[in-house]
Design brief:
- By secondary structure, the protein is an alpha/beta fold.
- 35% of the residues lie in helices and 15% in strands.
- It has two domains: 113 residues, HUPs (Rossmann fold, 3-Layer(aba) Sandwich), CATH 3.40.50.620; 165 residues, 3-Layer(aba) Sandwich (Rossmann fold), CATH 3.40.50.
- Strands 1-2-3 form a three-stranded parallel sheet, covered by helices on one side.
- Helix 3 packs across helix 7.
- 33% of the residues are buried.
- The model has no long low-confidence stretch (mean pLDDT 91).
């Protein structure tokens, strides 16, 4: 089993699973079976302000209804916060972190250009306004309790990563099952947030630490996370973590072309199940599991 490929489905319990989640879970399970690999379920509940136990129970219920099984015990991020703290400390020791005292409004007001795209996390790209704050001043503001985040100095991080590897890249699964090397530029996304007061780790940091500790070899997820892969690959290189293979599957969209959301009650699996449809009937209405 130790040499088997390892796949994972990793939902956040901040709402009900919808059709898009069902498709992603089924694609991951299909690939795991095709590769004679293991299928893991991970609960990404580091956002304590939004995660709910009732949603975790619903995730288990919905996935069981779909006919999926997974290894136990289930990995819950909230039970592994010490792992993320260690990763943060390593990046701090490398001199790659700095405190940022800017609010989202302040960042938006300093946006580099009005047409610049948001980061993969959906926020305006950070313009670097607190990157060079003197250490003594930063320490004083923190001691006074001023709210702040910890950001990765992207220029320093990329420079260090390129001392370890010739190019920052990942391997993406193609339609024919082969893998293509995709070169990425994390600098495009600015200094990413790795921790904040209300959430002591970011999604990007937690997911790479978890994948390494769980031995994940294949990351299968929606194409909306395609660009986040560049930041995660950078963190893997900096933290000396193994590189998984990636597959970003197409998203399910509504009639307007908008990706499905947890706020859309009509597409939630709980609502759909209440109509009496079977899992087999639902699967026939979904796109092919491999495109």
């Amino acid at each position: 089993m130790s040499n088997s490929p390892v796949f994972r489905f990793a939902p956040s319990p901040n709402g009900e699973l919808h059709l898009g989640h069902a498709y992603s879970a089924l694609v991951t399970d299909h690939l795991a079976r095709a590769e004679r690999g293991r299928f893991l379920l991970r609960i990404e509940d580091v956002d304590g302000g939004r995660a709910r136990d009732e949603y975790i129970d619903q995730i288990y219920d919905d996935l069981t209804w779909l006919g999926l099984t997974w290894e136990t015990p289930v990995w819950k991020q909230s039970q592994h916060m010490e792992n993320y703290a260690k990763a943060l400390d390593k990046l701090k020791q490398l001199g790659l972190l700095f405190p940022c005292f800017a609010s989202r409004r302040e960042i938006a007001e300093h946006e580099l250009t009005p047409t610049m795209p948001d980061t993969p996390d959906g926020f305006p790209i950070y313009p670097g306004i607190y990157r060079d704050t003197p250490a003594k001043e930063a320490a004083s503001r923190i001691a006074e309790g001023e709210p702040h985040t910890l950001r990765l100095n992207m220029e320093k991080a990329v420079a260090l990563a390129l001392q370890k590897t010739d190019v920052i890249s990942f391997q993406e699964r193609q339609k024919d099952g082969s893998y293509q090397v995709i070169t990425v530029s994390p600098l495009d996304w600015g200094d990413m947030v790795l921790a904040r007061r209300e959430m002591p780790t970011s999604y990007n940091l937690a997911v790479v630490v978890d994948d390494a500790l769980q031995g994940v070899t294949h990351v299968t997820r929606g194409e909306d996370l395609y660009y986040a892969t560049s930041m995660q690959r950078l963190l893997q290189i900096l933290l000396d973590l193994p590189e998984p293979l990636y597959f970003h599957h197409p998203l399910l969209v509504d009639m307007t072309g908008r990706k499905l959301s947890k706020s859309d009650d009509e597409t939630s699996l709980k609502t759909i199940r209440a109509t009496g449809i079977s899992a087999a009937e639902l699967c026939l209405q979904l796109p092919p599991l491999i495109l």
